[in-house]
Amino acid sequence: MEIHWEPLREIIAAHQRFTLISHVRPDADAIGSELGMAGLLEAQGKTVRIVNPSAVPDSLLFLDPTRRVHKFGDGLKAEQLADTEVYLIVDTSAWGQLVDLCPLLKHTAAKKVVIDHHVSEDDLGATVFKDTSAEATGALIVRLADALGFPITPEIAAPLFCAIATDTGWFRFSSTSSETMRTIGRLIDLGVRPNQIYEKLYEQHSLGRIRLAGVVLGRVQLACEGRLAYTWVKFPDFEETKSRPVDTEDLVNECLKIGGTQCAFIAIEQPNRRIKFSFRSRTELNVAKVAEKWGGGGHRQAAGATLDGPLETAIAAVLEAMTAGLAAM
Prior knowledge:
Distance between the termini: 25 Å
Structural class: alpha/beta
Helix content: 25-40%
Strand order of the largest sheet: 3-2-1-4-5-6
Number of helices: 12
Number of strands: 12
């Protein structure tokens, strides 16, 4: 899906002060895209802030050594953003993903722009640049740089590499294309060291995370004649294994390592006893549509939603929806 980027050039040329925003619980695509976009804008002489509804996860702080990505409300309040001329929202186009920033964005007179590749979306009152076939928002940032003639510097190459590498499952997902690899090659030529990035992303786990993984994987269940695998995390598991909620990242993907599985989900009990679900699919089942039943969303093959508890009831509801989805294929 080709994006016409010229309107964005006009917006950038006509404004000076930009605030970049992404979704709650930002991942590497969100943080990497923000840092990449910030670098492009600053090279054009623009003033840029980055503010999100959640803090940068500890595992991604290496992408932001100067700590320029701020958490809204944590020393940064709405009145401090009053001079913003353009709010540029990356890697989401859903109100539910912007949480505490929603009132500000709904009432601002500033221009709003969205750059995103997710299927799920709301009307944010923004100028939208979206390609749902793109492998990562970071890849869209590279495309816009090329289209507008903005040079990609060595300083923003690593964040953009991380954005693309993580959202393609380190180039395992079907969204990976020859264009993806050509883009990655360009970023490597700019100085990115994939071995170092991989180590920082995936080989810095705590002992608690390893213990939590053992507990969670020991609970894996199969359904739909082995086509669906699922597991769950109880909130007390974190205390018992000395782990943290962030340690659940990517555990759902372990379920897809079972031969014959086509889709998977993990249910994670939150402190307020609501249940956060992460869905994965490697077949025609569109898990974004499943997630939308409960106000969630995401990609066709990777999505999320949060349901009311208790845990057993939420799992039963999701299991029913996933089973129905597989049956309809």
